[in-house]
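Sharing a chain and its predicted structure for anyone who wants a worked example. Both blocks are below, sequence first, tokens second.
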Amino acid sequence: MDTKKKSPLAGGADWEIQYTIIDPRWQGLKKIVENNIQTRDIQVAKIIDVCKFLTGVQVNLTTYWFGKSNLNLKNRLNYLVRTSYLVKHTIINKKTNYSFPVYTTGIASQEDLNKPYQHNFYTSYTIGQVLKMLSANQFFIKLTHVAHAKIKHNIMLPFTAEVEYVLKREGTPKDREKIKKIKIISVRDYPHDIVEIKRQLPKTEIEENEKVLVICHDEDSLQEISGCIQDQKEKYWLTTDESLFRGELCNAIYTLSQNNCIKKEMIQELQ
């Protein structure tokens, strides 16, 4: 496979996450925060709190407040990091030195989040777990553009996350009978990960009103995983990082046909 086209969220042996460790006594620059935090910053903290980890691009995708201005986005995120409203970490490829930042909530955001804050909570997650969450969060964020949705991480393996949603054109979260559920499996570039997911997929029980979305880091892993879901193919959607990150959500989904061929399908409900 051409490594130049490899997704930065694919993972692998050369990738690591460098966490920022905060002294538990540090409480952030509360006075500055109180005087300068805007409504959009609170919204950013809330969505990061739900998602646990987000890249800068994903932060902007949640609101579009910064438009196409990467400089404005970068400057605002840096300000929120300096005040400990957010915490910035670095995902880096040790072989190529390519890196990108990811963000978690910081101690100074706890009042706006109305919850106690645990210093350095993020260090319990491995690089593989973070990359899985980032890929699941990409689907969730794009889904929020067409649906009222909520995401839950840390669910039972082999799943990465679970999303409940109601399409905006069909109702609100109060319409319980219209709520749909998608469980997400994220496949990253770790041999043990792929082996374990392939082992568990045939035994995975899927409820009647559920779909399972499998996000693969590339088309090779998508082909490999598709062979394990043929008995329940109508319950599965498949996608790749490339399709999910670059295309419209409704055009990013693959399904298995009756003769088990992989085909890209326009998903009307995700428009």
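Comments welcome. The CA atoms of residues 1 and 108 lie 44 Å apart.
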